[in-house]
Amino acid sequence: EAGVVQSPRYKIIEKKQPVAFWCNPISGHNTLYWYRQNLGQGPELLIRYENEEAVDDSQLPKDRFSAERLKGVDSTLKIQPAELGDSAVYLCASSLDRGRFTGELFFGEGSRLTVL
Amino acid sequence: QQQVKQSPQSLIVQKGGISIINCAYENTAFDYFPWYQQFPGKGPALLIAIRPDVSEKKEGRFTISFNKSAKQFSLHIMDSQPGDSATYFCAASKDSSYKLIFGSGTRLLVRP
Lengths: 116, 112
Prior knowledge:
Chain A is mostly beta strands. Chain A has no helices and 11 strands.
């Protein structure tokens, strides 16, 4: 079974440029997460989707970040414009939750963003 | 506000030794406590998890000890192996939130 697939793996951009990350979750997983992991830190939740609905985006900086999950499958996270402080690894994760939080998130390998 | 505090930041253990990583949490509403393992260039992967109705859970060489009154839990890795060298994250969540709050991580190195 394929795991969570993310692209690109690495991205280097100048500040103020836009960037987008793509995620394909494990087939059948209804919950999709975007986390940000700063160097030497644990992941922090940006947004959670239940199917195609964003049910928790309280920690998403909405002035520059946006996300979508089309047809409840793939998801895209966009930053526009990027700032120096956005340099981090952006992790996508998915889980199969049937009415109760299982707590088992399956993470992709992440997209490492460097903003110059 | 850091809700899950993890220590130590780094740990070096000889092969065959016991690795111990500790976490403390603040929110008494947390009811799920997993440990994730992350290798360089990879995403975190669930290692073992516990809910507060038990004080200990063991899976192979990995054991979680949970102290509800002290609001602390720890990961013990018995007979540590070089292949266990990775970064370990504790986490906590409330079922209703579906949100994992991660600790800052412990970088474990197991020397041959």
